[in-house]
Amino acid sequence: GNSVTQMEGPVTLSEEAFLTINCTYTATGYPSLFWYVQYPGEGLQLLLKATKADDKGSNKGFEATYRKETTSFHLEKGSVQVSDSAVYFCALIANAGGTSYGKLTFGQGTILTVHP
Amino acid sequence: GAGVSQSPRYKVAKRGQDVALRCDPISGHVSLFWYQQALGQGPEFLTYFQNEAQLDKSGLPSDRFFAERPEGSVSTLKIQRTQQEDSAVYLCASSLGPGPNTEAFFGQGTRLTVV
């Protein structure tokens, strides 16, 4: 079946530190890959996505590259801010056989806390 | 409103009680999903609607869970004879239409606590 594995958390960083949150996946076919973010008191929001191998998704200074050879989609940011404190979820939509209606499979989430 | 709206935000139910959770998707969105998020875990798929048709209910954990979207807009997730293991946040998401790349917009969820 399809699955997503995220690095164990929580992650605590000082402001302006470099961030990496690891994500690997198992899926049939060529899935689309996503990072969602949940800020305190808010609903899940799409942060970035990549739909094919070697694509790089980017938004708000965050980046992730779709690596098919390592089945990974690691999230990175060069300089985190206090406002980046949130829970981050890696997710995929399987696309086996070219048909998909958009069902998301999520990782377990990584709590990020950034201190001033 | 412009986003996905869920109500109630919080629900406390006594074990054995029936509950109904409501989702108002973004107007015009064809696809609607329900997910269950246990504490400290990622959301897990429950069911999918395309307009009023329930095309996938493979994630519903038992026959106590029932979902409907009779007019292709508002959806209700009903849980009968609630059990403690049903305690979780129930998330609703909608998107413009089916496909692997369409963005899903999530509501803030309903936190259900069964006591």
Attribute tags:
heterodimer; A: about 120 residues; mainly beta; four-stranded antiparallel sheet; 12 strands; about 0% helix; globular; B: about 120 residues; seven-stranded mixed sheet; 11 strands
Describe this structure as you would to a colleague:
The complex is a heterodimer of chains A (116) and B (115). In chain A, a hairpin with a 6-residue loop joins strand 5 (32-38) and strand 6. Chain A contains no helices and twelve strands. Chain A has 116 residues and is mainly β. In chain A, the strands form three sheets. In chain A, strands 2, 5, 6, 10, 11 and 12 form a six-stranded mixed β-sheet that branches. A four-stranded antiparallel β-sheet of chain A has the order 3-9-8-7, with no helix packed on it. In chain A, strands 1-4 form a two-stranded antiparallel sheet. Chain B has 115 residues and is mainly β. Chain B is built from no helices and eleven strands. Chain B has strands at residues 5-7, 10-13, 19-24, 31-37, 44-50, 53-56, 65-68, 75-79, 88-95, 105-106, 110-114. In chain B, a hairpin with a 6-residue loop joins strand 4 (31-37) and strand 5. At the A-B interface, strand 6, strand 10 and strand 11 of A face strand 4, strand 5 and strand 9 of B.
